[in-house]
């Protein structure tokens, strides 16, 4: 049952993405998910790019609030090969760092104090 619901949700999201990408005129501000679609990144990568300073949300949104991005600025970075390379490198570096940390904690050996100390 959960797998069917997950599959249906993915289908709905893909339909929303297709509809968004087929728009003739894109809205002036985009949500994080729309920004991901527009730039060709995954939605979960937008916070990474924002944290690295490669994307800047409009105004000063609360930490846990929705973030909106300027379409005109997104158009500029979308056409900037250097920016796209930096953004792609930032994503790779993020996951490499995260995986290295996971590996370090998995294989680290706890040193217990000896009874003679």
What are the main properties of this structure?
117 residues; mainly alpha; Multidrug-efflux Transporter Regulator, Chain: A, Domain 2; two-stranded antiparallel sheet; 59% helix
Give the helix tally: 5
CATH fold assignment of the domain at 27-96: Multidrug-efflux Transporter Regulator, Chain: A, Domain 2
Largest sheet: 2 strands, antiparallel
What fraction of residues sit in β-strands? 5-15%
**Overall geometry:** extended
Distance between the termini: 57 Å
Order of helices and strands: HEHHEHH
Average predicted local confidence, pLDDT: 84
Please estimate the helix content: 55-70%
Structural class: mainly alpha
The count of DSSP E runs of length 2 or more, i.e. the number of strands, is: 2
Outline the low-pLDDT stretches: none
Q: What spatial order of strands do you see in the largest sheet? A: 1-2
Summarize the structure.
The protein has 117 residues and is mainly alpha-helical.
Q: What does this entry look like structurally?
A:
This protein is mainly α and 117 residues long. The protein has a domain of 70 residues: Multidrug-efflux Transporter Regulator, Chain: A, Domain 2. 59% of the residues lie in helices and 5% in strands. It contains five helices and two strands; from the N terminus they run αβααβαα. The protein has a two-stranded antiparallel ribbon with strand order 1-2. The longest helix is centred in the C-terminal third of the chain and has 27 residues. It starts with a helix and ends in a 10-residue tail after the last helix. The mean pLDDT is 84.
